[in-house]
Amino acid sequence: MTSLRRRAQDTRPEAAESTPTSLPLRWVVIIAVSTGVGLAVGTAAGLVAGITVGIALAALLHKVLS
């Protein structure tokens, strides 16, 4: 079923700004460091250990840097 009534334009300030925001530098650092350390541990100790260390380090850096 279709409606013939027009929708009102959204005039909220949040809706008017449709430009995407860039990734904060903090998240770039978190992703880069946790990926690097996860890869290093993964090559030395195995895939599961590398993924575990990468995720744990990302969570730790998120807590520390916020």
What does this structure look like?
The protein is an all-alpha fold and 66 residues long. It has a domain of 40 residues. Helix content is 67%, strand content 0%. The chain is built from three helices and no strands. The chain is elongated and about 65 Å long. It starts with 12 loop residues before the first helix and ends with a helix.
| Tally of DSSP β-strands | 0
Gap between N and C termini? 48 Å
* Alpha-carbon Rg, integer: 21 Å
Helix content: 55-70%
Strand content: under 5%
Order of helices and strands: HHH
Write the SSE topology.
Elements: H1 13-16, H2 25-45, H3 47-65
Helix pairs in contact: 2-3
Keywords:
66 residues, mainly alpha, 3 helices
Provide a compact summary of the structure.
The protein is an all-alpha fold and 66 residues long. It has helices at residues 13-16, 25-45, 47-65.
